[in-house]
Every structure is written in structure tokens, then in C-alpha cells.
Amino acid sequence: MVPSRRCLAAFPLTILLEPATALAASPGVVATVKAIFAQPDERLDYARTKLAFDRIVAPATNAIAIMAQLDALAKAATEIAGPGAPDLKKLAFLRHVIYDAGPWNGGRAFSYDLTDPLGQKPGNQQLATYLTTRRGNCVSMPTLFLILAEKMRIKGIALVDAPLHLFIRYTDETGKPLNLETTNGANPTRDAWYREKLPMSDRAIASGLYMRPLTRREAIGDLALGVVDDLITKGHFEQAGEVAEVIVKNAPRNGHAMVKSGTAYAGLLQRDFIGKYANPDLVPVAQRPRYLRLIEKNKAAFWSAEALGWEPVE
């Protein structure tokens, strides 16, 4: 996850993105993301959508090979659970197949990568990396669990947002919820634990920013955040802002996307104005309207997130 950056209205700016080297980006990135979100919810398959986003970040991603691995893991868990197994039993054996070494996973269990718990290193949010290294983070681990649960046709599974963290919530037929912390063996975890370990305001919970099961479209929005992170890291701030805005349009309570949008505008301000002119008065008259628009977009993005109860994580 790329750290958030917000700008102030005048120079000097105290918090900005570090200069990034602008590498060539595909002109179709924004169009591809828009096309994915243009599909009806019933066609938004978690595995295929995640792989589509991963291929934007890493075009060499072998989606066919990765899908085969995902299918094999889901099939193994389904077969061990047995025909007609209830969802709770399926969940138990899904945990088994992921976190216990055995022939079902080639003798290589999946575990939490404590050297990169937030998935900040390039490529570490991608399925290919997690499947290869067997070491995941708070993005890749719940993503894999979500995908395999869908393949096993487990009902009531949803992704849940917390500050710089994702986890899984299973809701049974009676409406009883069960949190599953995928960075810890997908073991049951109380809401209070998340409130203690990941401080969040009552307003952030009441607004639906955190601690609620996401709809399919909202979860796809979270899966797309890796694209925004990659674009920001590579210095493609315009595209990063556009993709973040597409996410917010489809997931209006996605505070992470709002903050990343603001971060992208901060990057544009740094690149095109702050890094070039010692103070605002030196900005050429013809460029001042764009300069002011970027400042307003930066502030509006963070204000929108803060209105939901978002707070920066130290």
C-alpha cells in the first residue's frame, strides 16, 4: 500500500510524494478498469477480476497457470470436506488446505510475511507472488481466501475493510457473523480485537467505512487499489487519480480510494508545480487554473475520506 500524501494550498508543502521516475504506462489502463466495473455484479468473478488487475500491474502474469493453481486448491478443499458438506465444514477444510502443509498444497503451507505485512513491496499484492512464495500480507491473504471460498460455492463470505487491513467475514444462514483473520490461519477473531489493534473511530464504523461486509462491487474496488498503488509508484499520477475515481464511483464509501486519489493529485502538484517553482506567485498565469484545480481536488479527496471517519495511520 502506498502511503497517503496530502498537499496544502500554498508553498512550501510539508507532506508530499517522493519524486518518482515516470515509466511508460499503457494508455488503456483506465479504460480496462472502467470496462471491468461496467459489467453487472453477477459477472464480477473474484478470481478473473483480480487476475485482470494483476495483469495491468504485471503484463507477464500467466493468468491461465494461476487459475489452474486456484482451481486445484479449491478442488482439494472441496474433496476433503466431502460431498454435500455444510459451509462451516468447507471453511474448516479451506483453512486446512491453505495453512497446513500437505499434498494438497505441495507440502508448502501459506503463511504471513512479517517482513512486508502491508504488501508495500512491488508485486507482493499479486496472486502470482503469493502462490509462488507462499508468504502473504493483509491484502493477498484475504484475497486468496475470498477467491477460493467463491470457487467452493461457500455462501455468506465477504471482504471487510479496516485501517490498512482486510479480513474475511462469514455470515451463516441465521445472520450470525464470524470474522476470519487470514493473516493468522483464518482463525475466528472478535470485532473488539480489530478495534484494539487497528484503532478506528466510532464515526468510521457508523459511516460504513470500516468493519462491515462489502458488497461484491465494493470488494472489487478494494482489489483494484493495487493498480492505483502501482501507478502512483511509477509516477503515473493522472491515471492513478482516474482509476481511484472509478473505484469511488462504484464504491462510494471506499475511503482508501479517496485517499489514494488525493495522493495522486499531490504527486501531480509536486511534479508540475512545487518541484518547478519556489512559490505560488511564480506559477505561470496560464497554468494557474490547473494548479488551483489540483489543490482543490487534493483537498476534496481527503475531506471526503475524513467525512467518513478516515484518519491517517501513524
Task: Summarize this entry quickly.
This protein is α+β, with helices and mostly antiparallel strands and 314 residues long.
Can you walk through the features of this model?
- The protein contains 12 helices and 6 strands.
- It is α+β, with helices and mostly antiparallel strands and 314 residues long.
- The protein has a domain at 62-199.
- It has a 4-stranded antiparallel β-sheet, with helices on one face.
- α2 (46-57) runs antiparallel to α3 (63-81), α3 (63-81) packs across α6 (140-151) and α9 runs parallel beside α11.
- The longest helix has 20 residues, at 255-274.
- The protein is globular and about 70 Å long.
- The model is unreliable at 8-23 (pLDDT under 50).
Helix content: 40-55%
Please give the largest β-sheet: 4 strands, antiparallel
Mean pLDDT equals 92
Topology pattern, helix = H, strand = E: HHHHEHEHEEEEHHHHHH
Give the assembly state of these chains.
single chain
Q: What's the overall geometry?
A: globular
Strand line-up of the largest beta sheet? 3-4-5-6
What is the radius of gyration?
A: 20 Å
- Note the total helix count: 12
